[in-house]
Specification:
The structure holds two protein chains of two kinds. By secondary structure, chain A is mainly alpha-helical. Chain A contains twelve helices and two strands. Chain A has one domain: MetI-like (MetI-like fold, Orthogonal Bundle), CATH 1.10.3720. Chain A is globular. Chain B is an all-alpha fold. The N and C termini of chain B lie far apart (about 60 Å). The chains are: A mainly alpha, B mainly alpha.
Chain lengths: ~280, ~280
């Protein structure tokens, strides 16, 4: 076979691979949208998004409860994880002795890779009994435990990306600030952190996405009752949990409503990403 | 508000930074340490080589889960690797800078942030229901391919783009065709980066649970073909924790998974060092 023929053939082959990748992506959007349409049409978009009652057997498919569950759990997790992760990133990038740094890099990478079910499992065994004792009721499965588990889970992700962006700040910045008589903390606070802002933002957005999208670890510790989360010591349910817990036994409109849950989850994540993008553009 | 003297803020900041650093590290050490210490005593020959027997007490081991996980990884990688590398070659070497190309890269970026359960939902709709694979290893593997494809394409693309332009030009100047250059010059130079990406995909596949939970079913029986259901190790942890009292076995499975991830990570480090040494040797 002539090498020119092979050259021309390979051009088409790799093009087809590129198109297949695109088709898969399009198929994902089309299938999920298509399967959610019956629910949106029969129940109505606003009844699904703003309905607070989820009783599949009685035809009530409001997911506001789960939406609130997802948002609350994620916000709480961020509240715990972000300060800790930023402190940890500053520690690793600016303060820690080189020997500790050399150890933490692979350790953080390992922690990012640990299956989320393991985080959920340890949370379930260690934290749930603790919270049950504290609140005195139930099994301890609660919004609080889910938030703590998620915070621990996203900690390595947020830390490592923030650390990278602080490391990427040129050394002259540090030297310039120190030469002006600033203390090390003043240098970090007024020079390093502003310079690394974009990377830190990106790490937080990524952490938010992971927290809102996590499924199994949250199911294991949140109790999964579709009740509106008013008490952080009480069980709740998230959007992801709603899908995973019910999809295998659902049929008809119920199944379609779960696909609608997926659409709402997808839109929520897109919203967070684009908000972050807008904030990012405004500041730069 | 009173302004604190710089020396004092420096001291306060230092104490809090050390404290957060130590708290974070201790928390994470605790998770791994707890899983290993509580999990390892339950690992023995019988645990590894018998299948789960079911029931509330969680009798049996994890053999069928190991087999299902291995099949899952093999099928996933067999489809993912050619597709991912092919698409990456197209995007980095062949694609013209037009609307289609930008659409592909944009949607890849978009998909990288989509949660696993949404991929699971898609896999459930298309592979389990529409294509009648039912709950099966194939359905799980195809779903995993969709989940990992954006990541692999992007890593492979980066590795290919990192090959210096001068090497391509040198090859083309010798009269090779574009494909000969790509296959014999660019790809060999990009192999370390691509291999690292592939190994990381294996790691993510091993750790994945949500999208497999809804596409592979929960059957703990030994898989007999690609079309039979199965239970991946990570999903098995979930079932043990939720449906049985055998939490020690769940922790043992978790310890095995962490050890696997550790081996996978170390092999990427080893690989990149080896290739680095090799490149140094060439010079």
């Amino acid at each position: 076979m002539s090498r020119y023929f092979i050259d021309r053939a390979s051009r088409y082959v790799v093009f087809i691979f590129g198109v297949i990748a695109l088709l898969i992506l399009a198929a994902i959007a089309i299938f999920i949208l298509k399967d959610s349409l019956p629910a949106f049409r029969e129940i109505g978009i606003s009844d699904i998004i703003f309905g607070t009652k989820w009783y599949p057997s009685r035809g009530a498919f409001g997911i506001l409860t789960m939406l609130a569950g997802s948002v609350l759990v994620t916000l709480l997790a961020l509240l715990m994880a972000v300060p800790l992760a930023l402190g940890c990133a500053i520690f690793l990038a600016e303060v820690a002795p080189p020997r500790i740094r050399r150890l933490t890099r692979p350790a953080v990478e390992l922690l990012v890779g640990i299956p989320s079910v393991v985080y959920g499992l340890v949370g379930m065994i260690v934290l749930c009994p603790l919270i049950a004792n504290l609140s005195g009721t139930g099994s301890g499965s609660s919004v609080l435990v889910a938030a703590i588990v998620l915070a621990i889970m996203i900690l390595p992700t947020v830390t490592s990306i923030s650390e990278d962006s602080m490391r990427a700040v040129p050394n002259q910045y540090r030297e310039g600030a120190l030469a002006l008589g600033a203390t090390h903390w003043q240098t970090i606070h007024h020079v390093i952190l502003p310079a690394a802002r974009n990377g830190i933002m990106a790490s937080i957005v990524l952490g938010t996405g992971r927290a809102i999208g996590e499924t199994m670890a949250v199911i294991m510790v949140i109790g999964n009752s579709p009740i509106f989360p008013t008490n952080i010591f009480a069980p709740a349910r998230t959007l992801t949990g709603n899908i995973a817990v019910e999809i295998m036994s659902a049929t008809g409109i119920h199944q379609s409503a779960l696909f609608a849950t997926g659409v709402v989850l997808f839109i929520l994540i897109m919203l967070i990403n684009s908000l972050a993008l807008i904030a990012y553009r405004k500041k730069t | 508000m009173m302004k604190l003297p710089p020396k004092l803020t420096q001291r306060i900041a230092w104490v809090s930074i050390w404290a957060t650093g130590i708290i974070a590290i201790l928390t994470l050490v605790f998770i791994v340490g707890y899983t290993f210490i509580k999990g390892f005593p339950a690992i023995n020959f019988e645990f590894l080589f018998t299948s789960p027997k079911g029931g509330v007490s969680g009798e049996g081991g994890i053999f069928s889960c190991i087999v299902a996980t291995m099949w899952l990884i093999v099928i996933t990688m067999a489809i993912l690797i050619p597709l991912g590398i092919g698409a990456a070659i197209y995007l980095s070497e062949y694609a013209p800078d037009n609307r289609l190309t930008r659409l592909i890269s944009y949607s890849l970026e978009l998909l990288a942030g989509v949660p696993s359960i949404v991929f699971g939902l898609f896999g459930f709709a298309i592979f389990v229901l529409a294509l009648h694979f039912n709950y099966s290893i194939v359905a799980g593997a195809l779903t995993l391919v969709c989940l990992l494809l954006p990541f692999l394409i992007r890593t492979a693309e980066e590795a290919i783009r990192a090959v210096p332009q001068s090497q391509r030009e040198a090859a083309l100047a010798l009269g090779t065709t574009k494909w000969q250059t790509t296959a014999n010059v660019v790809l060999p130079a990009a192999i370390p980066g691509i291999t690292t990406g592939i190994i990381l995909c294996v790691g993510r596949a091993v750790a994945e649970s949500a999208c497999l939970y809804v596409t592979m079913g929960g059957s703990a029986a030994m898989p007999t073909s690609f079309l039979s259901g199965g239970r991946a190790l990570a999903v098995h942890i979930f079932y043990l924790a939720m449906e049985t009292t055998a939490l020690d076995k769940a922790l043992a499975t978790g310890a095995i998974l962490i050890a696997l991830i550790l081996i996978i990570n170390l092999s990427t480090v080893w690989l990149s060092q080896r290739f680095y040494a090799k490149m140094q040797g060439i010079r």
